[in-house]
């Protein structure tokens, strides 16, 4: 993509905003170099990784990205034998720790069965350099200072250093506290010059303390003297400091060599952490602008739903649908200058660039964008003072460059095409340029205020007119994009609202051709019709959502009832079996007692009488339920086929088999409901085909005096109404009615949709329609039978 296009469409500002969400210089570097990709597979992968980052950010909220540094220069210096500073080693240790934290963080989310394969693949490449991290931390603290415990020798040297410093201070303290010192010292303090302890002595007493003069004040009245008595002690301190520095150098050299050993692993850690910081920065930015992941295609198709410009505040921006590349490849937006046409162009162009850069776009879920080989834009005043070019000339230079480069995999955006010159010539040029780009096969969106281009979309296939809505009442644009409706001039209406004399306006209208007036009237009518259609579409969608919710709730309740009924039946069967067992045991006990009595008391009880008594006891067992009998009745395995009619015993409802879903389960259509039913809970009624063949021989014509020609369902509950419809249709068929009416009312539309869904699936219904104006309109459904 050309840098000029990135600047014109303000992609550079997107990068600036994105930088605020990076946690490290590594992520910021990747963002600074971010440009849209033209490779389809790469764009799909970039979008997928951003979506995974957004998923993690939504689940966890806080990402462990602190403590990451750009350690690449340190690694390079260690490889060539350089000695790293304590601060540089601390940064390496901190970065290793951050990589371990991130690896653990992603792996924990993956274990929770959240699908993040790209992020998991990234952290799998991280090799935890725990030993190197610990070695560095044992030697260097977080502020970049070498610790005493870095080596035994360093610990000893620092102990000696502190002891000697204490002795030097003690001697100097005794000197400055003496009574004579008050007049000889400029101030009773101990200070350091050239790494040696000194005291501030007045000029005139310079010989009193002897020793070495290290410095003097700006006025020359104070000399900083190292007294003779502590020169030897200071020399010892210096000697220890030299040894300490040599030991520190040795420790740093050793640690730098260890870093060099793991140079490759550290380079991988840096690369992965940079990628992860970049991914999560994109995710955070997407959350800020309320963006979603677009569907990416390679066919030049754009479908942005409720797209917004990311730089306009959410409480001010107007969202628009922008569709291009399916039925038409060119959109011409006409209308007055102050209508938001340029914002629409920039929104489309910027969303395309953002998507190809792997960023989510400020639009609704389900939006779709294409991967273009190039995006070209001629927007704004590119007039060049240095070249002494007019506005028209400067635009034309840009357009010529676009025409030389454009191909069938390009998106081209023209703002005010042909402006800046004679209107007739400008309009003719605009039409010719659009024709050329359309011929090449590029996707084009152009804005213009030339009325001649209003007819352009009507005369050419694949071109759509559009405009930005203008509210004449408030005298301001609404910024709402109207696809399929060309813009019209509102000059007369605005002038009238502002108080211009009616006579002047009428006189002005007389100068406008009849064709222009007809076009403007047509456009006004189109705008009104489109607005009304959008309202009705929204109402229809609301009704559909309500109906779907009601259908799902009903289906859920039916399934719950079915499951509960099964459970209760099983419990009842178990209880019945338990009662039967108890009864049998009791019977056996009675028989045993009788036999015992006969044996012991020689009672006159015959054996056959005992057997009869036992049979009578067995007959006392409770009878099976009706449903159990039916189940046993069809114990012979029935071979079911799709289309067979059955009775679902658990609901006592007729249904049709749709498909077999398991070894003993079928999906059954019962009216508008589909549900899984086990074969043991079904009774075979016959095949649909057989029934249809034999139907003429089985028609029973009964008296129709008790069956009305219409069924009134108003006020009925949804489930009761459907049951009444089923019975009524059966009665009407028996009465041989050719046509009946079902009154369901308008309401929310849920009952109407349920009734019509049932009728469409009924085998005896030929067709259905709404009632005519005199029959009740959409509140009545007329049913014709086969």
From TrEMBL:
Known role: Endonuclease that is involved in the suppression of homologous recombination and thus may have a key role in the control of bacterial genetic diversity. Acts as a ribosome collision sensor, splitting the ribosome into its 2 subunits. Detects stalled/collided 70S ribosomes which it binds and splits by an ATP-hydrolysis driven conformational change. Acts upstream of the ribosome quality control system (RQC), a ribosome-associated complex that mediates the extraction of incompletely synthesized nascent chains from stalled ribosomes and their subsequent degradation. Probably generates substrates for RQC.
Q: Which UniProt keywords apply?
A: ATP-binding, Coiled coil, DNA-binding, Endonuclease, Hydrolase, Nuclease, Nucleotide-binding, RNA-binding, rRNA-binding
The family database entries (CDD domains) matched by this protein are listed as: ABC_MutS2
Record HAMAP family: MutS2
- Record PROSITE patterns: DNA_MISMATCH_REPAIR_2 (PS00486), SMR (PS50828)
- E.C. code: 3.1.-.-, 3.6.4.-
Boundaries of every Smr domain copy: 711-786
Residues holding ATP = 335-342
Identification of the protein by name: Endonuclease MutS2
Q: How does it assemble?
A: Homodimer. Binds to stalled ribosomes, contacting rRNA.
Pfam families, per this entry?
MSSS, MutS_V, Smr
Coiled coil spans: 519-604
Name the family: Belongs to the DNA mismatch repair MutS family. MutS2 subfamily.
Query: Which GO MF terms are attached to this record?
Result: endonuclease activity
Q: What is the top-level taxon of the source organism? A: Bacteria
């Amino acid at each position: 993509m050309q840098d000029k296009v990135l600047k014109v469409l303000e992609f550079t500002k997107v990068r600036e905003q994105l930088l605020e969400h990076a946690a490290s210089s590594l992520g910021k570097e990747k963002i600074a170099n971010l440009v849209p990709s033209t490779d389809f597979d790469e764009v799909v992968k970039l979008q997928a990784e951003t979506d995974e980052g957004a998923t993690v950010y939504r689940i966890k909220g806080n990402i462990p990205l602190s403590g990451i540094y750009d350690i690449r220069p340190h690694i390079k210096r260690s490889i060539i034998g350089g000695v790293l500073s304590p601060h540089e080693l601390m940064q390496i240790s901190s970065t290793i720790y951050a990589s371990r934290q991130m690896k653990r963080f992603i792996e924990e989310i993956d274990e929770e069965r959240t699908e993040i394969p790209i992020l998991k693949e990234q952290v799998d490449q991280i090799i935890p350099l725990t030993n190197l991290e610990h070695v560095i931390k044992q030697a260097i603290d977080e502020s970049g200072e070498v610790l005493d415990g870095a080596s035994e020798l360093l610990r000893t040297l620092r102990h000696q250093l502190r002891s000697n410093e204490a002795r030097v201070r003690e001697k100097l303290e005794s000197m400055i506290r003496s009574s004579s010192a008050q007049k000889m010292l400029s101030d009773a303090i101990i200070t350091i010059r050239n790494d040696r302890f000194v005291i501030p002595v007045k000029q005139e007493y310079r010989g009193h303390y002897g020793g070495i003069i290290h410095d003097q004040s700006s006025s020359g009245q104070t000399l900083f003297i190292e007294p003779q008595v502590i020169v030897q002690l200071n020399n010892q301190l210096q000697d220890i400091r030299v040894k300490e520095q040599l030991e520190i150098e040795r420790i740093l050299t050793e640690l730098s060599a260890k870093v060099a050993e793991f140079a490759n692993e550290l380079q991988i850690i840096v690369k992965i952490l940079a990628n992860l910081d970049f991914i999560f920065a994109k995710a955070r930015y997407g959350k800020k602008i309320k963006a979603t992941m677009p569907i990416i295609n390679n066919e030049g198709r754009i479908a942005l739903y409720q797209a917004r410009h990311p730089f306009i505040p959410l409480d001010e921006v107007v969202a628009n649908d922008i569709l291009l590349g399916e039925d038409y490849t060119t959109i011409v937006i006409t209308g007055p200058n102050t209508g938001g046409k340029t914002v629409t162009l920039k929104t489309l162009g910027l969303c395309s660039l953002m998507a190809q850069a792997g960023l989510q776009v400020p639009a609704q879920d389900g939006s779709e964008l294409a991967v273009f080989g190039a995006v070209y834009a001629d927007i704004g005043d590119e007039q060049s003072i240095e070249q002494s070019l007019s506005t028209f000339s400067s635009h034309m230079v840009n357009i010529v460059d676009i025409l030389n480069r454009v191909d069938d995999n390009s998106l081209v955006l023209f703002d005010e095409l042909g402006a800046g010159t004679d209107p007739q010539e400008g309009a003719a040029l605009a039409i010719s340029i659009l024709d050329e780009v359309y011929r090449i096969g590029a996707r084009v969106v152009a804005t213009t205020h030339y009325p001649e281009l209003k007819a352009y979309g009507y005369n050419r296939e694949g071109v759509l007119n559009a405009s930005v809505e203008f509210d004449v009442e408030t005298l301001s644009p609404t910024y709402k994009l109207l696809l399929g409706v060309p813009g019209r001039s509102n000059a007369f209406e605005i002038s009238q609202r502002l108080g211009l004399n009616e006579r002047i306006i009428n006189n002005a209208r007389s100068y406008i051709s009849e064709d222009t007036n007809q076009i403007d009237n047509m456009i006004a009518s189109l705008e009104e019709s489109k607005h009304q259609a959008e309202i009705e579409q929204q109402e229809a969608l609301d009704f559909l959502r309500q109906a779907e919710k009601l259908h799902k709730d009903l289906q859920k309740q039916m399934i719950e009832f079915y499951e509960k009924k099964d459970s209760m039946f099983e419990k009842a069967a178990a209880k019945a079996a338990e009662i039967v067992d108890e009864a049998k045991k009791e019977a056996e006990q009675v028989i045993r007692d009788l036999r015992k009595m006969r044996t012991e008391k020689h009672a006159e009880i015959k054996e056959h009488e005992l057997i009869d008594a036992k049979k009578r006891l067995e007959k006392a067992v409770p009878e099976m339920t009706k449903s159990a009998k039916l189940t046993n009745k069809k114990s012979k395995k029935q071979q079911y086929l799709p289309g067979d009619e059955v009775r679902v015993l658990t609901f006592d409802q007729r249904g049709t088999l749709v498909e077999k879903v398991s070894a003993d389960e079928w999906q059954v259509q019962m009216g508008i409901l589909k549900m899984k039913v086990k074969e043991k809970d079904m009774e075979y009624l016959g095949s649909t085909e057989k029934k249809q063949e034999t139907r003429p021989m089985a028609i029973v014509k009964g008296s129709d005096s008790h069956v009305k020609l219409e069924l009134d369902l108003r006020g009925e509950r949804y489930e009761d109404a459907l049951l009444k419809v089923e019975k009524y249709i059966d009665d009407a068929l028996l009465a041989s009615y050719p046509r009946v009416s079902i009154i369901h009312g308008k309401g929310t539309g849920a009952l109407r949709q349920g009734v019509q869904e049932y009728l469409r699936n009924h085998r005896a219904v030929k067709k259905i329609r709404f009632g005519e104006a005199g029959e009740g309109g959409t509140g009545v459904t007329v049913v014709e039978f086969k």
